[in-house]
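Progress report, Aim 2. The chain analyzed during this reporting quarter is listed below.
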Amino acid sequence: MWNRGFVSLLATQFFEAASDNIVKGVIAFGVAFTLPFIVLSAFGGRIADRSSKSRITVVLKAISLGVCAFCAFEFARGSAWGALAALVAFAIVSAFFGPVKYGMIAELVPSKDLARANGIINMATNVAVIVGTLVAGLVAQRWKDGFVDGAPDGSAAWLPGIAMAVFVTLGFLTCLTLPKLKAQNPSLPVDLNPFSTYISTTREMAKSALLVVCAAWTFFYFVAAVVLLILPDYSSYLGVKDDETGILMAALGVTIGVGCVTAAYLDSPARRPYFIPAGAVGLAVGFGLLGLAPASFGITLALLALAGLVAGFYIIPLQSMLQALAPDDLRGRVLGTANGYSFLMGAIGSGMFLMLRQLDVPSNRIFLVLSGLCLVVGVAALRWLRKHRSPARAV
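Predicted structure tokens for the chain:
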């Protein structure tokens, strides 16, 4: 598994995730960052099927260098609209890279190592998100202090650009070591309508277990979106400072990564599908306890760590099944479509959170809502697996 191609992809994805979260952390426009993923992910999957994934990666990383330079300039001059445009540009590049990187895993490692490769990639991504968020926190305050009466004053105004440039440049250099991969479907016609790819790919996925696997996979991002909105409210609920809330988020990210790797190394094709209902029920238990727990920082930290560990057992088997069940010449579009749906589900989860808060439901009690939904998904997944045993043999 630890061949040159996989190590190159691992490093490239780490620096990609870190740089994305630096720019998101310094300037947070969640809707602006989400829309490109919803609109362009399936279109990016079409390009991934039509062209060499390693070549596309190099092109995208080269474009990222230009976007980084533009972003650095706009941050330095304190332009809100320029910074927003740079954020959207980063999101567009990431939307195209999503189906490329996850589709590439199946081309770089043997099928028997697919789950382990996904687990390691996911853990590296979570660590990179934490690193990027921490760097953004350090940079953002100094960047704000670098302005006097709205005008840049001193070198601190360039700090966001410098931080992003380090990670983007490293990501470009590591992707240059990827092996040359052949295009899986070079005769695939170009279709500039991004939504037609969603429709045609969803129809193809409905012919097999892929659509059910995709639905279960995207549910995780619905849950994740809600959790990431709940936790910032915990500074007031627990009576702690914002940096301690950051510790809760970091603990969740680290334990999800550990859970991903653990699930990956316990994985086998026969047991892989049954990790899914077990993970969903485990999440239901963890969220239920969080919803009922007293306002204690230590207890909350421990329960979030538990939920993070269990989450790996839910997400890694599904991600591996998406890659394994998708035909070689359709894999990019399958992963792109799933990626787009996951961001849509995240937006729906965010909407549900805001609706419940408008109804004066306390943030910690929203964990009980998530618990109930996870339990429903876990029971439904178990019943579906007992009725359709073919996915276990297929992967």
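The chain has two domains: 1-178, 204-395. Residues 204-395 form a domain with the Growth Hormone; Chain: A; fold (CATH 1.20.1250.20). These observations will guide the mutagenesis work planned for the next reporting period.
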